[in-house]
Amino acid sequence: MTTQTSSRAPGEAKRGFGGLPHWVATLAPVWTLLALFIFFGVASQSFLRPQNINNILVQVSTLAIFGTGMTFVLLTGEIDLGISSTAAISGMVAAQLFANNNAQEPVPLIAGLLVGTLLGLLAGITSTRFRIPTFMSTLAVSFIGAGLTTYVSKGRTITTLPEYARFLGSGRIFTDETGRGGFPFIVIVAAIVMLIAYLVLRYTRFGRYVYMTGASKSAARLAGVNTNMILIAVLTISGFTAGLAGVVGMGRLGSAQPDPVPSYLLDTISAVVLGGTALTGGRGGILQTVIGLLIYGTLRNGLDNIPEIDIYLKEFITGVVLIVALIVNVVFAGRSARDKTAV
Amino acid sequence: MSAVLELRKVSIRFENIQALDSVDFDLLEGETHAIVGENGAGKSTMMRILAGVYTGYEGEYFLDGQPVHLQSPRDALSLGIGMIHQELSVIPELSVAENLFLGRQPLTPYGMIDWRLMNRTAQEELSKLGFADIDVKRPLGTYALGTQQVVEVLRVILSGAKVLIMDEPTSALSPPEVERLIQLIDTLRKAKRSIIYISHFLEEVMRVADRVTVLRDGHKVATVNQTDTSVNELISLILGREINAELPAATTQKDAHVLLEVRDLTADVFRNVNLNVYQGEVVGLYGAIGSGHFDLARAVFGMYRFDSGAVVVDGQTYPRDFSARYAIQHGLAYASESRRMSLFMEEPIFRNVMVPHLERLGRWLSPTRSTELDLSTPQIKLTGVHPDDPVNPVGQLSGGNQQKVAIARWLPFPPKVFIMAEPTRGMDVGAKSEVLTILRNFRNEGYGVLVVSSEPETVLSVADRIMVMSRGQVVADMENVNLNKDVLMRLL
Lengths: 343, 492
What we know:
Structural class of chain B: alpha/beta
Number of helices of chain B: 17
CATH superfamily of the largest domain in chain B: P-loop containing nucleotide triphosphate hydrolases
Helix content of chain A: 55-70%
Distance between the termini of chain A: 19 Å
Oligomer: heterodimer
Strand order of the largest sheet of chain A: 1-2
Shape of chain B: globular
Order of helices and strands of chain A: HHHHHHHEEHHHHHHH
Number of strands of chain A: 2
Structural class of chain A: mainly alpha
CATH class of the largest domain in chain B: Alpha Beta
Largest sheet of chain B: 6 strands, mixed
Shape of chain A: globular
Strand content of chain A: under 5%
Distance between the termini of chain B: 34 Å
Number of strands of chain B: 20
Radius of gyration of chain B: 25 Å
């Protein structure tokens, strides 16, 4: 076998790109985050204020919930393009039930989560049963979700939100006696979701199978892993987290919109990949996603905190920084440039 | 008759291997000239030189008496040399006629494809060759493989080839399809086309060829007329010696317990296969590539869907449509012929060893790293994986050591039967004998071992009993006593 063997002498320390020690290279996303933090800390008066750090956390929390499910999906080497729409219909169903059908909590919340989960399950079953790439099945689900949202809402925005959603999205705990200050609950929701996902991926057999399926589907099958079940499971998880993100995000924004927020999808994928989870599957994880989210949140928020930057250039700068960060992360932490079999 | 194509003193080296050494070859007009030899004798290399794939050779190449030096397969085609590969290059979704005229469809004066002209010409050309029954408007993919091959041959001819090179054209065909191809070659011969025919199947070679050139270790051994030779003579020319190698005595006990029983297994690529593996026995299942033996092995392990028949392991009949997971839990182990497909190259050795067993170590949780290391390290040492540090990624091991990992991974919870496809492919002599020794040890410890291979040396050196598969059927089942390559080759 010639292709995959590297000519490293036994005992020699692993080296990543450019001869950097391996641990420096694999932590590239962390260095990126630190660099951004230091840069914005110096360049902006307001960036490092506790209130602003708080803001960053709140801003990435919805993405974090989306990103948790997306991490599962990307780890298997698949993709879920349906999350924005799934979120929209989940939020809309919850809001409709509460505002116009007099459903009492927790019915709207549960209904919203159920809708998201079912849409994920639908994509999973379609893909495995009929061998349709997840790119297509989840794209179809995204149309279904968006269409249902428009239909259920009849094009109207709903502002009477179920109280659970409102609390999860914009509630605060540890407030002072006047009801101010405190810690935003949405951050805790995101943290709990990510903690559970972390434990599942790290310590359960299912988690192991998710990585194995992404690393090599054929090898996983030969080892007795039911890769189809794994695929259905990760898409269902992603549906569930998208549903939760939809309900929570709605609570944060204060209204249920009749259209999906398309940027959720690309923001989520960008953040997860920035952290170092490979689109090809098998590498990455929740910790990487946390870092990716923080990089993404820092970048977005930091640009807002430098008043000198032309507001019309922000999107452009974000793109440029993303490219650079991706190159740094992926190339430095990635495989040897010799390996032509790697994508 | 004059030679349409001639090679004089052609040699080529790859790194340290002299792939061809001063080989002469000529092809007459209207002749079918077969090239035979063992794997690695230089057949493919010679064919690739002829077809313009390898350009860095020494020696001379003449076409119609003119010296040429081809730079690419496109060059070859423009000079009238067409190649029919083992894997067909037809497009199943397009119609027969479209495939025939791919890239040179006739156009109407308005620049549109002239469908009527194209279909009519296609039908005429097929009729000339005796295939009037093929509907040129039907998608080619709806026809059997043999018909697709006929269409590919005709396409190469229509594109202007005077010389056809056919590489193992029958290995994937059923017997009636083979007849059809032989009939086609006869027609082409009458039309003065010259054909170079490469095949493992000597009976077939004797039927189609006018002359046969035998290669061995990169040398031309002989070119003989079909009328002056026989299958047996070809075999002794190919092997170059009378083999009387000493073989390990078979240890099968007559009343031994059956560990693996395959009953009447039938799928698209194999039919009515019956096969037993007894306790304490190594069975070698030998066949040329395309015989269906690799898919049979996959089917026994639940990785290839079969239509009828049954798999019985240690007296227990597997349910229909069982999964690999079921097979693993009920006494089977399998290592595929592609290590790249069956191992996680970037994962450490111990993880690779433990993946099939995670379910046995916990319903929900995965085992801890130390549990995995404790269970896998002894097996990694036992099989002699080198270097034996269990945390090394498998991808950094040599082929032989990867194979040892593929074996070691079944030992933490030993199966009853090991199924190993090409256990020694691509290994050096030392690694080969180590792996084969491991398999023999399993046999001595009372496991059943089924070795599936297309290399006669492998089955001859390790098996107690050898079964031969040809075109999806078992054609022989014999004790490995005084067997040698020529017997196996004659059975193909």
